[in-house]
Design a protein that fits this description.
Elements lengths: L4 E10 L2 E11 L4 E5 L6 H9 L6 E6 L2 E2 L5 H6 L2 E4 L11 H13 L13 H13 L15 H14 L4 E5 L7 H14 L4 E5 L3 H7 L2 E6 L2 E6 L1 H5 L2 H6 L8
Parallel strand pairs: 3-8, 3-9, 6-7, 7-8
Antiparallel strand pairs: 1-2, 1-4, 4-5, 9-10
């Protein structure tokens, strides 16, 4: 099965500090590929190189088999790359429906058309409503996003990602700060969605990782030390030694 997203031998350093050390991995259609590792392992820097916020010193990033290294972040998004951040980035005074609409506008309209008849565009509003319904927020569409609970804000950011019609979702700790009930709901949502997208999941909740992931890669000090099926990662002594072995007793 051909990869939707592929990283080939990425290297990145800041002065003497190596943050990405010959990293290769891919994300295939209909799978969740989890990227785990201790704080400071280089996960955020790696995500930044995928989105174009950081330029690797060597190596390449491909989507659908074609290099995207020269493309800016917005062009990568139009090719089908969507990111949800660790801290939701929303327009607080705008409604949930309007936030979802903005993602669709950014995908389909040029800057000169950005604010043209947004709230009179029935197709646009239907697409935004559909994205909210996917994450269970249809009834909250008229609420300002700042009034949403933390778990609802995370769901809204996911809805904004869906509204761009992505091929690949980059999810940066989607369970961070969620209570038990919201975590269970998020895990169930991601399990339903993984057949529709390729997902690269960065997450510290090992119960969620082992419940969801088809493959897991372990990043330590900028280098992938193990990659494979969840069962092989659970039993890998290098992983237990390098990444808080107690957390992997799941």
């Amino acid at each position: 099965m051909s990869a939707l997203l592929e990283l080939r031998h990425l290297h990145k350093r800041f002065g003497a500090l190596v943050v990405t050390d010959d990293v290769s991995l891919d994300v295939r259609p209909g799978e969740i590929h989890a990227l785990i590792g201790p704080n400071g392992a280089g996960k955020s820097c790696l995500i930044g190189q995928i989105t174009g916020e950081l330029r690797p010193d060597a190596g390449g990033v491909l989507m659908h088999g074609k290099p995207i290294d020269a493309l800016p972040t917005e062009s990568r998004a139009r090719l089908g790359l969507a990111r949800a951040y660790q801290v939701p980035r929303l327009f607080g005074t705008m409604t949930a429906q309007s936030n979802a609409s903005l993602a669709e506008i950014a995908r389909t309209r040029s800057s000169g058309q950005f604010w043209t008849s947004v709230f009179d565009d029935k197709a646009l509003q239907a697409a935004a409503h559909g994205a909210l319904a996917t994450v269970g927020l249809a009834a909250r569409g008229s609420e300002p996003s700042l009034l949403l609970a933390h778990g609802e804000k995370r769901l809204l950011e996911l809805a904004m990602g869906f509204a761009t019609h992505p091929a690949v979702l980059l999810l940066d700790e989607p369970l961070a700060g969620l209570g038990a009930g919201d975590s269970d709901a998020m895990i169930a949502l991601l399990a339903r969605l993984k057949q529709q997208y390729g997902i690269l999941l960065v997450e510290h909740d090992m119960n969620a990782v082992f419940a969801l992931a088809d493959r897991i890669s372990v990043l330590v000090s900028g280098r992938i030390i193990a990659s494979g099926a969840p069962e092989s990662i659970r039993d890998d002594q290098r992983v237990r030694a390098a990444y808080l072995g107690d957390e992997l007793d799941v």
